[in-house]
Design goal:
The structure is a single chain. This protein is an all-alpha fold. About 75% of the residues lie in helices and about 0% in strands. The chain is globular and about 45 Å long.
């Protein structure tokens, strides 16, 4: 069994209840978005600021590399999610909405929802067992769409 299959199967064990799955379907991509937004908000050193990159761009590269190591389709899907997240972050900034405040508030709400989902499920979150599951969650979210498109991951 490939590593991605093993990780997704283990993650799925604590995500069986339909309400918990629905909550995670909303909260997982939201948490990915707001985490990038919070990292985006960390100021870059002046010497690097003229390159028009943020810490979120720097962090996204190894994260996406990890996803591509797990699976090409998952890596491609996570690249799309990452691009959409950067678009959302830029939209917040364009609308003069404080990115860090918006993302921090949504971060707290989404994590509370996730813990409510796990309370309903009756199982603790997977990342308590292995921190890699913080990255597996968004991949697991994509597998639902990839299966519908008949794309194997």
């Amino acid at each position: 069994m490939r590593d991605i299959e093993r990780l997704l199967n283990r993650y799925g064990e604590s995500h069986q209840n339909k309400t918990n799955v629905l909550i995670h379907g909303i909260a997982v991509p939201s948490i990915y978005f707001v985490t990038l937004g919070l990292i985006w908000s960390i100021p870059m050193p002046d010497a690097l600021s003229h390159f028009n990159i943020t810490w979120a761009h720097v962090v996204a590269v190894p994260v996406l590399y990890y996803y591509f190591l797990l699976s090409g389709p998952i890596g491609a899907a996570m690249t799309l999610l990452t691009i959409a997240c950067f678009g959302g972050i830029n939209l917040l900034a364009y609308l003069d909405i404080s990115v860090w405040k918006f993302c921090l508030a949504l971060f707290v709400v989404m994590w509370v929802l996730q813990f409510v989902g796990h309370k309903i499920e009756g199982k603790k979150p997977s990342f308590f067992e292995d921190l890699r599951f913080l990255l597996v969650g968004p991949a697991w979210w994509w597998t639902h769409f990839l299966k519908r498109l008949h794309i194997s991951y």
